[in-house]
Amino acid sequence: MKKQPDKGKITALYERLSHDDERAGESVSIENQKRILEDYAQKNGFTNIRHFTDDGVRGTTFKRPGLDAMLEEIRAGNVATVIIKDQSRIGRDVVEVGLLKRVFDEYHVRFIAANDNLDTANGFDIMSIFRDVINEWYVADTSRKIKTVFKSRMEKGLRCSGSVCYGYLASKENKGEWIVDEEAAAVVRRIFQSVLAGESIADIARALRAEKVPIPSEHWKRIGAPVRAAKYADPYAWTATTIGYILKRPEYTGRKVLGKTVCENYKTKRNRRTAPEEQYIFDGEIPAIVDEETWNTVQRLRETKRRAPKRQKAPNRLTGLLYCADCGAKLTHRHNLVQGRWIDDCFVCSHYRQLTSDCTMHYIPTAKMEAAILAAIQRVSWYVQNNEAEFIQRVREATGQNQKNAMKECGQKVNQAQRRCKELDGLVKKLYEGNATGKIPDKHFTRLLAEYDAEQTKLEVSIAEWQGQMESWKADTLKTDRFIELVRRYTDFSELTTPMLNEFVEKVVVHEGEGRGNSRRQRIDIYLNFIGAFEVPAHIVTPMEAEEQRRQQAEQAAKEARSQGLAKAREEKRKAEKREFTARKKAGLLTPEEQAADEARLAHNRALQKEWREKRKAAEPPKPPKPKSIKELIALQRAGAALAPEEAERFAAYRERKNRQHKEWYERQKAAQPPKPCMTVSLPQDGSAKHKKTQDGQGERIA
């Protein structure tokens, strides 16, 4: 063994120990490595030794304090020899270890691995490369084994991490189990209820800070639980990030989620969040703090970004619930505040007058929208409370029919896509055969293969989505019980509160309105949670609707009575002013200005009356010619002139009427005259005597 030639330079003894190496026992401890290296240096004549140590650092990490200090000395030219126990102590990465060896060569540093018989003074040793590969393989194999163990534990529902989310505590009796921390759970429930009440994340954080509610780390510190972030300046400094992290944790619904992160590379140690299909989910494995409906509603509310209007503390509570029936976009809240009054408070389609899309306005006032939603909730809730059995039956019938139709349609799409995939497999096979035989050039082969592959990939994604929908429909049960429970939870439906709005309403589809003013009509489809767009039978009139009708009728009657009273008062005032003016006019007390104004008024009225008469006269149809009188017809008849058919008919009717009148007159005159006496003289047969018939019918003998 050659002695150290550079007497003024140091001999660097490097030791490293990782947490994984500690499992091997005392043989690889820092003290053992120092003893071995010092003995080696003493036996081989190396003096002026200095130790460079990294304790608790992995071999795949090359940002180490001891290694960096040794490299600084090497670059400064102060190191002649570097001695390590074995090559794994310098690192377990082939590339990085090779770069370190190149640095040693550049600065003419002798590199020795005591247990591996490696000494660069003896020339190149090809076995050192294999040892570096084996050292890195050891890390990769260890990483693979650890991942396998973790995966096996997670598949069984066992935790691989000791961290516990805020609101729970680790159970002392059962390792890996969680129990509810009631003090923290109350804060979690309050945060979820505040979101349902329409409060923003920043408002919730400010309220918690004002009430001096301790942050999670401070709470864990006070109860003696493990603390994640031990360093913090303010124990009550709640932030929007902390609250947002709490709101998105599915564990609060009683769901155990394992494998949320995964280490992709054992060298970089960088973790990534896994997709939902990569996670291990176990429902009901831990006690729930909030119910699933509340958690789902909060996630839906957080999907929409809400901005508060100017000079307002909170955004509109309907934001994110209204959708356009034509383009499907969300409706945007439009507001104009002038001198403390809302000039325009409404919702319009977000695609209205956009450069990239075009849609109609779909204008609807906020007050009318809230009134319609409240009326729908009141109507359905009253129907549920008074006709529960009928409600359940109607919802089951509607849901079953809708799911049946949807599943049938998805099944047809899946069958068509699968047939097309089989056709594409055959086409690709023929394409390969054609290219192999030279019938299809490589250029066309590459293009067609890319097109077929893209189409098949798209079909496979669509098939997976449709099959997932079908599975969810099959597993979905009727949610009428949940809606009934929600209705029973509320006792007062007289006012639309923000929690009621968020818990009852899933979405509202707004159609374009028709008409203007009071005749404007607009369709609104209100989808309620669990039951969708449920419609109560039209013949049912709820007490709330009857009361609303009575209220509207009373308001209309009061409005009409008020209008009539005002009109009557104005009329009385006008008549009184007119009587006073007329009295002053008769008394000659008018001023010249009043007299001139009165004359102008009279002239104006006369002009208006004249114009009105002319218009009425012009609007009247022309009068037919006046028929000839009977005298004129008689004169024409006597003169022998020919009469028109109408005139001849009128003249004949006149003659007939006159004849009838004359006959009736004659009969009346004849009936009014007394009968004339009758004188009868009869002679006897013998001729000796005569008799005279008197008026009374008695005969008188005449000699």
Structure description:
This protein has helices spanning 30-43, 65-75, 87-90, 94-106, 127-155, 182-196, 201-210, 216-223, 240-247, 292-302, 366-386, 388-436, 442-475, 480-489, 498-504, 543-586, 592-619, 630-638, 645-672; strands at 10-17, 49-55, 79-84, 110-113, 118-119, 168-170, 178-180, 255-258, 261-263, 271-273, 280-283, 322-324, 331-338, 341-349, 364-365, 505-510, 524-528, 680-682, 690-693, 699-702. Helix 12 (388-436) packs antiparallel against helix 13 (442-475). With 703 residues, it is α+β, with helices and mostly antiparallel strands. It starts with 9 loop residues before the first strand and ends with a strand. The radius of gyration is 55 Å and the shape is elongated. The strands form seven sheets. The chain has a five-stranded mixed beta sheet, sandwiched between helices. Helix content is 50%, strand content 13%. Residues 689-703 have low confidence and may be disordered.
Brief description of this entry?
The protein has 703 residues and is α+β, with helices and mostly antiparallel strands. The chain is built from 19 helices and 20 strands.
